[in-house]
């Protein structure tokens, strides 16, 4: 049995559709393996846009008071971070990009997470639809050099809510959650 880990799943869908279901399957597997998992749905969070004021470079804190700092702290204290998201125009949803921007004050702070997983769904069944997603996450990870994008699961051809039900990707996501720490990086 592997050591219990703290995993944060960021559900970036604003309509709670296929990508959120994919994230839920991952959570089922991770919990079955004995890990503590917290799911944070960005749909219910208030995250203001970064204005580039750079006050955080001086104070280490953002000038805005909203949900972003709480989410950022949970990410920073997790062993692994999972992003479950729909692909929007070949990239990540705006709310997730806004969260990435708002994490600028945390770039020089200590963090625990070393593993990052992306679970993504797209309406079109084209592998190139996921290139921008991977690039966006890897660009964010540039600020967290000890962390790595260890696993990805991209599912195309699932446009309408519920299209993913019965899809083999649900079992893959569950297995990924269950086995995330079976093999050490």
Using brief descriptors, characterize the structure shown.
FMN; 185 residues; flavoprotein; Flavodoxin family protein; 18% strand; globular; Rossmann fold; Flavoprotein-like_sf; five-stranded parallel β-sheet; alpha/beta; 6 helices
Describe this structure in words.
By secondary structure, the protein is an alpha/beta fold. It has one domain: 3-Layer(aba) Sandwich (Rossmann fold), CATH 3.40.50. It has a 5-stranded parallel β-sheet, with helices on both faces. It comes from Candidatus Pseudoramibacter fermentans. It holds the Pfam family FMN_red. This is Flavodoxin family protein. Keywords: Flavoprotein, FMN. One of its GO terms (molecular function) is oxidoreductase activity.
State the gist of this model.
InterPro entries: Flavoprotein-like_sf, FMN_Rdtase-like_dom, ISF_SsuE-like. This protein is an alpha/beta fold and 185 residues long.
């Amino acid at each position: 049995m592997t050591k219990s880990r703290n995993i944060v799943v960021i559900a970036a869908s604003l309509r709670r559709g296929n990508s959120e279901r994919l994230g839920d399957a991952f959570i089922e597997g991770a919990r079955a393996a004995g890990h503590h998992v917290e799911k944070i749905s960005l749909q219910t969070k208030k995250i203001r846009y970064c204005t580039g004021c750079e006050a955080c470079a001086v104070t280490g804190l953002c000038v805005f008071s909203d949900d972003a700092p709480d989410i950022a702290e949970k990410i920073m204290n997790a062993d692994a971070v999972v992003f479950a998201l729909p692909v929007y125009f070949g990239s990540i949803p705006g709310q997730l990009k806004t969260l990435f921007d708002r994490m600028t004050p945390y770039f020089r702070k200590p963090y625990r997470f070393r593993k990052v997983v992306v679970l993504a769904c797209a309406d079109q069944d084209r592998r190139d639809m996921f290139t921008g997603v991977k690039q966006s996450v890897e660009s964010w990870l540039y600020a967290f050099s000890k962390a790595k994008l260890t696993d990805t699961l991209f599912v195309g051809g699932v446009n309408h809510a519920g299209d993913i039900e019965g899809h083999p990707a649900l079992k893959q996501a569950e297995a990924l959650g269950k086995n995330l720490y079976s093999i050490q990086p």
